Amino acid sequence: MPEFGDAKLKEWDSDVVAGREPLRPESGLLRGVTTDRPPRSAEARRAFEASDALTRLVVLPNAHDLQARAALLEKALATGDQRSVRVEGESILELLARTYEITTPRLRVLGTRPRKVWEGGQFELFGDYDFQEKRIRIWMRTAVLEKVTSYRGLLHTLLHEFCHHLDREGLGFLETPHTRGFHGRVDDLYHLALATPPKSRRPLVWIRMGSAWRIDWSKLRTSRSGDR
Ligand SMILES: [Zn+2]
What we know:
Layout: H1 6-18, E1 23-26, H2 42-53, H3 63-79, H4 82-100, E2 106-112, E3 115-118, E4 121-124, E5 127-130, E6 135-141, H5 151-171, H6 180-194, E7 206-209, E8 212-215, H7 221-224
Parallel strand pairs: 2-6
Antiparallel strand pairs: 1-5, 3-4, 5-6, 7-8
Helix pairs in contact: 3-4, 4-5, 5-6
The protein binds zinc ion.
Residues 24, 26, 160, 164, 178 line the site of zinc ion.
């Protein structure tokens, strides 16, 4: 699992601040979870802080329905068939969109993850969300070995991308920043889909990294090892 490279973080941040970013590219979703840095403008900063504070989803989809659809996604992924993965992924998105009374985002399921390597780091794309098209893309094979990605990893990517769509369409966070609240909302859907028993679910623990935050995995290792 690659971590974020600093260069990439800077690039994303400058795109967000300038409001030019058409895509939300994702890498290192579980191990390298970091927040974006707060934007400079007062208005963007207010939305950022509101997103940061909203650490739980008040409304959740029907648990049994979500878990049943997630189980079908797991079965589809085991077949390695992109079309089946798309159909079951769309079924999850349909339930979520209906729950939050927003449009259903489009979904594309692609093969081998794009990968960029530079001196001192590498970047593997897991998924992204296109603001204009309202379209999620997820990749289902690892960059180097081209093996089918883990079910939990793929599910997490899908829910993460849905939360960008929910931010823009339902919560009014148009820049849909990666805040502690954003990651908390993804975590809510992820553990609901997996039917994680409440006592096994660890709260996300954040440690400061300059003006951003990253997850302290040493506090989560027991509950999350083997996610990818
Ligand atoms: Zn994201």
